[in-house]
């Protein structure tokens, strides 16, 4: 094959001269000092001046050093809370619930000395099962967001007391002519609904409507038509054997991705010890854009969103009548045929991301036809994640504009930004006499309201959620409110003249519901109260399928169609737009940070829009700006080529281009919500668009080839059939390559045993001239299952939160100087011009903690060295910043602090500022830092430490218990964050440990080490990717270049 | 492990026994069954005084007032149970003391309770001021300056005599017509310059290196604290267990400075300093202990006259934290965990903090330098055979069995590796 097998970007695939030049340079861009001070470097320094500088600096250093140590205070509590509740220096964990406009995750919040610093998944929840997402973990940073409102506001001015808003609001309410609207996001909280009902009871002309910025009205209405219930069912991805997704990004953003990903990944687990009987779900995806879920699919084909109706019909007919599909592409036809066959086998599930009612009715019909109702589609516990009806919202905006609305209360939503016709909303709001926002910041809507009465952050409040009917989940405060905020329920109660507080109602409600204080206490401690046995039931389908098919098919497309989508990091926008962690998290597919852009297939970009500046688009960070127009609305954004996009489809993410009052990190990019349309029934997120060239260029910070392996073999991938036929294929190829070094001929004759495994011990010992170092007690090791990684980035953010990893800002990312300790490498294979051929693999990559580490030998000061537990240690204070280690690391996982990113330096004004990421250094935001991890200063190298602070803590716990260390003592941050159980970590010396079993018992045939042939002896192994498909596009040819490099 | 013990010589076994005894002595809350005073101070003193009513009643003679010895044992072991059983005497007592429940001490044996009773009944109020040991000896006269002057005078004398000798020689030579060698001034002598140069460089180098190594170290740092709190009085004379106040030392990385309400557990009743030991500051000023206790009251919000906390309208105690000056400062990149050393390593507080029980004002006893830490890690043997955690080190267990080693030091378990303390 002329092309490489796996490539991160087109430039790597083509291996252009520009790309070669970049990978050869250790530092891809100019050194930061160069663009800072050209003058200094070009200045001529005569000998006398040199001596003067020398004298001055010596003197300055002496004076600085002889200064007295500062006096530090140790201030204990005046009156310490109960000793059992709080010991300074020991973390407390509180079960709580992440709820964000209907998105749900049960969590444990780690607090240190009274402040939440880390969020982890809660295993007690049967819904999210300990899984988390990037946003869930990043919520701590949003708590300490500097741009949160710190007090109520009245008529554009901050006021000091709640009386200053309560009195005028109560007065205005009593004299408000016209309707009173309470607009919230999808509300999961039963007690908040109770409070709203009391308010509505007090003001009979009041109405509560729920509004979802990214709406699922189509599904709600379709279910009403098909099943007579305006509700969403629970989807049991855990039980699915075949999943067909029509444009639904259910692993990344669709409905309840944490739940679905955690469940679905359980069907992708493979044990090679039982390879013959291995079972694995099969995942088909048909979509227009390249979504994260599509990237994980076993079989994928593309079509325009306007053709979804035809695809659904084809699938329906193939299942019900066996009719052969006749769709525009051959791949689509074969995929539909195969999917129909698999779905009919039972335990199938079809989901669709469209908001079109008729299309969803067809999907319901398919699910009914394959018998999914009552198996993978559960109607016994309906999901409450999304409840908003688009028509309600449109009617409300029309009523405002007609002057029929007297008062509006807005909670948790921001229509002035995310409503499809934001201008109409804003105009209407101006006609309302009393408008109140409970939002946490001066967002686009709050700027327009008369009053702002900020609600607590969820980490500061009491609350509850009913994510599914009968499943309860609780929110308890983990910190006292930081600012002068008030629970919105209390505000509503106050204005409705109630004497009770929300907390009273909350307690009464749950004590009554759960049957006593003791039950309630237990539920609070567990975080959830769930039915003992999960109810399961189907529903009877009825409806006019043919009519729905005709209508769904009738949708007309255009030359180009634009898909408006949520990114995995930011979601619909909201407060997340100002979260620097999420802004800097590379998108799973595009690996772009800090911006939104127009995603476009490489072929279209090259042929139609001339969007390749240097022959290969990716090397050049400046991208051509395109104008995408839907109706009269247009956005101009840079183009980013994405293999796997349908050639006639472009995609633009929402959540960017915010008002500067939302926060400095949120202003990049453009708002894409104006590209949404309303079809009279629901919002449409995919529309016909025109795309035009402009003369502008714009730099996008993309990390995808910042750490190139220069085509060394990194990924091992097999089809399920190949694997079943010969599970030992990987082991054999490893053996073939390494056995020669494990048993060199000069060491005498070695009995060749074909069935024996690779002798790793002999390879470790004999393939080097250095002595092997013992690991007497503990030998840490990590195993990463490529089959379980969806690329969602939860581990990236968890690592950032746990290890105080710096945010560097867009300017530095452009220079390849991002700091993340764990990155997710995304590899494509296939033909970039044929979107249907693209296969994608995600691979989390962090320090491999090599036992024979190349970085260690080259450090002149031994700042990085090896521990007897197999850790590649990094002593920051010994590091003098030569960066030799980074240069010598074959995995490119070492990160250098080019600047003082976190205020760790002694010199105050040394801080790096770029105008966007700087809030991260505010005293308030710094409360999120983990006190057990050193904040690194300028000039030192850093990298993954295997969460050594957790390892040390685990060992200490075991020592105090007087027991040998076991798996349950230790989890690394990335491991805990991953809902898919991608990571296994533990003591390899312990044969009872999970890591030992993965490596040497259950999955030894799938184990491989990246760049093992270098004899660096990594302590991180990977398990090969098994794809349930017919062909691995990357082929199985031995890689030519890889051999040259050894 | 038993095999290991069997292979030991008698001497080693004996020393082991002694060591075990010493440790159990140091780390048991219940020190010795007969030591009523210590038991009283550890368990009872925070609420009771032998002869004065405090949080609880004065205890002297109470053992004779209660219904029976048995009753008393039950009461001490679990007073709530006695009250709940409907016992009349118990309920009367409970009501009389405003329903203040007494902590249960299920671990105290009957002998120990007897020892406490014995101590309490025999207790006498500290007598009047004694004059013993009050003689302040005159500080010894410092004669250094005398010696200095004498040395200088003598040196001058030597110098003058040498010059006189030289001049006389010259005069004598002139007289005899001999030529006097021309004298090279000392400062221009090459040999002198060379020697002086080397000496200056070596001293300067030594001084600079030492200075920079010591930069940021604060051995003997003894700042003035907002309250003159004497560890000598509390930990030394009154034998209060270190962990009573520094409760975090066993649980947390921080030993914890006690909050004012912990102080008030005892100082609700101890409102004056009656100790015989005078409290002298580093500068030599005498401190009035009672005044210092009243400083505590101000912080804690305690009204010593009404014997109750001062509260604001919302019922919140009007207290403010004491802002102690931190003495032991480690740089940010050093991770130190008290519980690792105290609970697991069984290291005594004094090993690092010095004779704290003798310090009126605390100073930093150890250099807290990395060399000092590492030295200890190299020399200290861990509790290898007593803690099952170390079972994972099969190799060392085998070597001990084979008699190749007697113990395992912290360094051999990786205790000198960078990421044991720096991360």
UniProtKB/TrEMBL annotation, chain A:
Lineage, highest ranks first: Bacteria, Pseudomonadati, Bacteroidota, Chitinophagia, Chitinophagales
Domain 4Fe-4S ferredoxin-type as annotated: residue spans: 780-810, 838-869, 870-899
PROSITE patterns given in the database record: 4FE4S_FER_2
Tree of life domain: Bacteria
NCBIfam families (UniProt xref): MoCo_extend_TAT (TIGR04519)
SUPFAM superfamilies: 4Fe-4S ferredoxins, Formate dehydrogenase/DMSO reductase, domains 1-3
Name of this protein: Quinol:cytochrome c oxidoreductase iron-sulfur protein
UniProtKB/TrEMBL annotation, chain B:
Domain Cytochrome c: 31-124
PROSITE patterns: CYTC (PS51007)
Keyword Cell division tagged: no
One matching Pfam family: Cytochrom_C
TM stretches of this protein: 144-162, 191-209
Keywords (A to Z) from UniProt: Heme, Iron, Membrane, Metal-binding, Signal, Transmembrane, Transmembrane helix
Source domain of life: Bacteria
N-terminal signal peptide: 1-33
A molecular function (GO) term: electron transfer activity
Protein known as: Quinol:cytochrome c oxidoreductase pentaheme cytochrome subunit
